[in-house]
Amino acid sequence: MSKVETMRWRDGRLELIDQRLLPERFEYVVCDCAERVAEAIRSMIVRGAPAIGCAAAYGIALEALRTSGEDHPVFDATLEHAFEVLARSRPTAVNLFWALERMRHAWKRMAGQPPGLIAATLLEEAHDIFAEDLRSNLAIGERGAALVPPGARILTHCNAGALATAGHGTALGVIRSAQAQGKNVSVIAAETRPFLQGARLTAWEMVQEDIPVTLVTDNMVGYLMSRGEIDLVVVGADRVAANGDVANKIGTYTIAVLAERHGIPFYVACPLSTIDRSLESGSAIPIEERSPEEVLGFRATRWAAEGVRARNPAFDVTPAALVTALITEKDTVTRPEREKIERLFERR
Ligand code: MRU
């Protein structure tokens, strides 16, 4: 298990590590309503597909608790608004919508019950979503570790760690579990421009766990692969389409192409809550376009001249054909494709 507590429920409120400040400062931000949670998701205080799903679930619970003293029409309208606000926070990671759907079902199952009882049920549901994500990550870690040879030098991109989930992580969960099995791995963390999740978050998480980590800029990956310095790649995912195409942090596609070119295994680790069977292929996945400011500079420093325009797509899509295996809590799917992905759900 990881030592990092990305989010915690304390005294009736949700506390989130402010991931914008890491690694310089370690601080929790306190959220007491859905609007505040949505803002935390939008501004990347909390980020990573499963983590924003869990946070959104707690956002609904917070709003229900806050208005549980009201009568039904007011309570229902407030809760409906909370769903809308949270659903608008970020578009790509399907875990957010998956978690909101679960919360809506829990609400509808309680139709006609007193608001106080509904609020208590919604808090239980949010706790369950959180606990299930943690369990899934531990299972993903165990499955994935079986694919990791002793002494492997593992490239990862962005942060798919404890910070991005309820704990343990998906891609970093595989690395943590492999290390716990004594595999003596080392990690190459790609910096992940422009928000630097690799440099700021993954490298920090690995230091917390005493797992050797080397930071590289994104454009060094091809060089390292060509020199035989990377044994395998493992990344997380924000949304996997029905055919196995994978949306993940911008730059993932480039790494997958390079891995194919060099015959290096490219693994994607994610829970079933990241798979969106309603989308035929990756081309239908909505890709978030973030502010150009994130590319033109970082925090208070601007490095591009005034008048320069920038693009900032936050994710890209890796075709299923480039994925060696999809590692989920249920099974490891080698060379993912529609029928194999469908089978994952049949056996549930
Ligand atoms: O923009 P972010 O930081 O939310 O993007 C996160 C990623 O792309 C992760 O790889 C993905 O969410 C998987 S997290 C287990």
UniProtKB/TrEMBL annotation:
Pfam families: IF-2B (PF01008)
Catalytic activity field: 5-deoxy-alpha-D-ribose 1-phosphate = 5-deoxy-D-ribulose 1-phosphate; 5-(methylsulfanyl)-alpha-D-ribose 1-phosphate = 5-(methylsulfanyl)-D-ribulose 1-phosphate
SUPFAM superfamilies: NagB/RpiA/CoA transferase-like
GO biological process assignments: L-methionine salvage from methylthioadenosine
Record organism: Pelomicrobium methylotrophicum
Organism lineage string: Bacteria, Pseudomonadati, Pseudomonadota, Hydrogenophilia, Hydrogenophilia incertae sedis
EC numbers for this chain: 5.3.1.23
UniProt-annotated binding residues for substrate: 47-49, 90, 197, 248-249
Annotated PANTHER family: METHYLTHIORIBOSE-1-PHOSPHATE ISOMERASE
Keyword presence, Isomerase: yes
EC class: isomerase
Highest taxon listed in the record's lineage: Bacteria
Keyword vocabulary terms for this entry: Amino-acid biosynthesis, Isomerase, Methionine biosynthesis
Function as written in the Swiss-Prot or TrEMBL entry: Catalyzes the interconversion of methylthioribose-1-phosphate (MTR-1-P) into methylthioribulose-1-phosphate (MTRu-1-P). Also catalyzes the interconversion of 5-deoxyribose 1-phosphate and 5-deoxyribulose 1-phosphate. Part of a bifunctional DHAP-shunt salvage pathway for SAM by-products.
Known pathway: Amino-acid biosynthesis; L-methionine biosynthesis via salvage pathway; L-methionine from S-methyl-5-thio-alpha-D-ribose 1-phosphate: step 1/6
Protein name as it appears in the record: Methylthioribose-1-phosphate isomerase
Gene Ontology MF terms: S-methyl-5-thioribose-1-phosphate isomerase activity
Similarity comment: family membership: Belongs to the EIF-2B alpha/beta/delta subunits family. MtnA subfamily.
Record-marked site positions (Transition state stabilizer): 158
Active site: 238
